[in-house]
Specification:
Elements: E1 2-6, H1 16-26, E2 30-35, H2 47-59, E3 63-69, H3 82-102, E4 106-109, H4 127-148, E5 151-155, H5 165-173, E6 180-185, H6 186-189, H7 195-202, E7 206-211, E8 213-214, E9 224-225, H8 234-243, E10 249-252, H9 264-276
Parallel strand pairs: 1-2, 1-10, 2-3, 4-5, 5-6, 6-7, 7-10
Antiparallel strand pairs: 8-9
Helix pairs in contact: 1-9, 3-4, 5-7, 7-8
Length: about 280
Amino acid sequence: MKKGINIWSFKEGTSIAASTRLAKEAGFEGIELSLNETGELGLTTTDQEIRSIREQLQEAELEIAGLATGLYWAYPMTSGDLSIRTKAVDICKKQLELAAALGVDTILVIPGAVGVDFIQGGEVTDYEHAYDRALESIGQLVPYAESAGVSIGIENVWNKFLLSPLEMRTFIDEHASDYVGSYFDVGNALHSGYPEQWIRILGHRIKKVHFKDYRRQAGGLHGFVDLLAGDVNYPAVIEALEAIGYSNYVTAEMIPPYTHHAGQIIFNTSKAMDAILGRSPQ
């Protein structure tokens, strides 16, 4: 397995170039980028700018571990508003296009939500409608993913949707495409289950993996803590990943970064991942 770090783990406003340098210095093999509405990597980013980003990473001898986006919180594929669902599909098409240009094999996709507690005033959608709309939206995107040669990785998040590994497996399998799979988040699964069980059930469908840790007793978003400081059974997680033959990136997503000396979280996370992956003395 290869060791990556998500760009959201860096202090807000840190450039891709600066994040890349720090990630390389800390010992990561790849960095996961994020598509934003505007900025360095946005919906209007030009081909020339994409080439520049790719060249920056090549010069740093760092791979692009994946392409995420937070835009699906504002534009859910499950919305009752057709224009919002259309916008979400268009965002995913752009994400697939950019991933192909950057040489990324999988994008992170949040397939919508039934409800989101941490977004005040967010839309609440009936579960059955959410399922049907998400299924339809991803179905529209399958030909684009296959054409781009980039997989759509459905992430398990706190969206009150696709709540079990059995349901996630069924949702993925309904598309009958090797280009639809799971972008499995270890820490997110701990809130209501056991990540090692999710891994065994999803099996070959897992395209990418996010590493986070979570302390159940803290609860809510405050429960997310540094790797190895929470309740994730990482030996069991690694055993499960090895059992299914997973060898792609495991990418740390550390949100939010430290308030002071923000860069230190990158080095701490790298060392923790070395321990988890058996790369350092125990």
